[in-house]
Amino acid sequence: MPVYSEKVMEHFMNPRNVGEIEDADGIGEVGNPVCGDMMSFYIKVDDNHLSDVKFKTFGCGAAIAVSSIVSEMAIGKTLEEARKITPALVAAELEGLPKNKYHCSNLGAQALNKAIDDYLKKQGKKVKNKKRREKDERE
Ligand code: FES
C-alpha cells in the first residue's frame, strides 16, 4: 500500500479546477492502457497565457491529485512555460509520489501538453515534437 504525502492527500480530497470548459480552446485526453485510468484537460488561452485550466480524471487518487496540482501549476503560465511542467516537477510539487505511482504524474503532464497541441493545431500552427522544441530553445 503506497504511502502518500499530505499534499497528495489534500489535493485528492479537495481537487482544484475539476470540470470541463465548454468552449475550451484546447482539449487533451490521455489514458494509460495498463491501469485503465483516463484524464482530460481543458484549457483557455488568452494572449499566449493559460487563463483557465480544468480537468476530468477517472483514475486513482494519485492521478486526481496530479491533475489538480498540474492545473494549479499551469494557470497563468505562458504556453512555453506550461510545456516545462514535467512529471518530475509535478511529483516534487506534490512532495513526492510513491515509485509505483510515477506513471500517474506522466499522465498529467501529457494531458496538459496534448491540450496545448490541440490549441495550436486549431490556430493552424504547426505542432513541433518535444525534441524539436527543446532544440529550438537551445538555439
Ligand atoms: S494508477 Fe494509473 S494513473 Fe494512477
Written overview of the protein:
This protein is globular. It has one domain (6-138): Sufe protein. Chain: A (Alpha-Beta Complex), CATH 3.90.1010.10. It is α+β, with helices and mostly antiparallel strands and 139 residues long. The protein has a three-stranded antiparallel sheet. It has helices spanning 6-13, 61-74, 79-83, 87-93, 102-122, 130-138, and strands at residues 26-31, 38-46, 49-58. The model has no long low-confidence stretch (mean pLDDT 93). Helix 1 packs across helix 2, helix 2 (61-74) packs across helix 5 and helix 4 (87-93) packs across helix 5 (102-122). The structure holds FE2/S2 (inorganic) cluster.
Task: Write a brief caption for the model.
Helices cover 46% and strands 18% of the residues. It has helices spanning 6-13, 61-74, 79-83, 87-93, 102-122, 130-138, and strands at 26-31, 38-46, 49-58.
SSE topology sketch:
Elements: H1 6-13, E1 26-31, E2 38-46, E3 49-58, H2 61-74, H3 79-83, H4 87-93, H5 102-122, H6 130-138
Antiparallel strand pairs: 1-2, 2-3
Helix pairs in contact: 1-2, 2-5, 4-5
Bound molecules: FE2/S2 (inorganic) cluster.
Keywords:
binds FE2/S2 (inorganic) cluster, 139 residues, alpha+beta, globular, 6 helices, three-stranded antiparallel β-sheet, Sufe protein. Chain: A, single chain
Tell me the overall shape: globular
Helix content: 40-55%
For the termini, the CA-CA separation is 45 Å
Class by alpha and beta content? alpha+beta
CATH architecture: Alpha-Beta Complex
Major β-sheet profile: 3 strands, antiparallel
| Total DSSP E strands | 3
Q: Which small molecules are bound?
A: FE2/S2 (inorganic) cluster
Specify the number of helices.
6
